[in-house]
Design brief:
There is one protein chain. This protein is mainly β. It has no helices and twelve strands. The strands form two sheets. Strands 1, 3, 4, 7, 10 and 12 form a six-stranded antiparallel β-sheet that branches. Strand 3 (29-34) and strand 4 (42-48) form a beta hairpin. It is globular.
Length: 174
Amino acid sequence: MARKFTLQFPPTAWIPVPGDDGTDPYGPAFVANTSSDTPAIPRVALAFDNAKDETAVSVPFMWPAEYASTDVTGTVFFHTTSGTDTVAWTLQVEKSETGPIDLKDGAAGFGSVNDFAATAAAAGGGVTEVTLTISNLDSIAAGDLVYLKLFRDVSRDAEGDDAYMVLFTLHEGS
């Protein structure tokens, strides 16, 4: 099947969500990793902590008109500083309904959790990608206003380093 659409979400398309327990007032942090170029060129990433669960929510976007109600795949592109263990992620999808949206409470409007995990690439910041077929799209239709919720679940991963998300993509079709 031909690819119907691809959406790309750089780190700046995500809003860090403070933790509910008061231990994390900020959520994941934006960082600029610099290259070895002269002058150094910053590369923005969203750093998900290795010691506590952290969440980011996408900016709202319109679900593509090309959507044909077939499988949608999400891919997280990330790296760690030196680790090579598993990083666990969850993704939830929410279509906007009338009224306020609670970005922190997954039970308020985000669909069921979609889990995926990957082993980080070799030490030194190599980018790893982990892909998931999203099974719960919250009854989305073309033209709906949508939010994504990306969560690093440290209770399920073994990585001792922060995970730096550099890109997230969604696509329908192969």
